[in-house]
Amino acid sequence: MTHDTDQLDQPLHWMAALFSWILPGFGQIMAGHRRRGALAMIGVLGLFLSGLLIGGVDSVDRREDPLWFYAQAGAGPIAFAADWANASLLKTGKVGELVESPPQNPRAAAPMVSTFKTVTLASEIGILYCALAGLMNVVVVLDALKRPVAQLDTGGGRS
User: Fold this and answer.
1) Domain carrying residue 36
2) 117: alpha, beta or left, given left = phi > 0 and alpha = psi -120 to 50?
3) What is the residue-wise DSSP string for 82-142?
4) Residue 56 belongs to some domain of the structure
5) pTM for the complete prediction?
6) I need a labelling partner for 46 at 20 to 30 A (CA). Which of 82, 96, 129, 133 fits?
7) Does the residue 16 lie in any domain?
8) How many CB atoms lie within 10 A of CB 150?
9) Is 115 left (phi over 0), alpha (psi -120 to 50) or beta?
């Protein structure tokens, strides 16, 4: 039986937390919790990639949607890679043609957008999925920070 004071005295595992941010669930795998880490990895990356499949790579955009990007950045370097792909490929016209979009301000120049830009509900769902994946990974990182290293059972007991 563990007491609350025993849990407070346990050290924080900063490297496991860092590795869990870089690759979701990897910190748990390093600490010996393979099943927990694999499930976290499948959950976070599956949700993030589903968001990219539904809403396109422009679902992650730190310039147009900075508040959403704060949540998406919790998923790790994959969010920064998706933002880079959006900024350097779609917004520059390297992929797809740039066309004029109707201006929101009649006095301003018409903004140029890629023909691959996702619009309507699919874009919003993609943004939401990527943000939820980032927030879910924040929980995974906090779990890796506090979860003790698994002890291998070398006795004749159950495994």
Assistant:
1) 11-102+109-146
2) beta
3) HHHHIIIIITTTSSS-EEE---SSTTSPPPEEETT---THHHHHHHHHHHHHHHHHHHHHH
4) yes
5) 0.79
6) 96
7) yes
8) 12
9) alpha
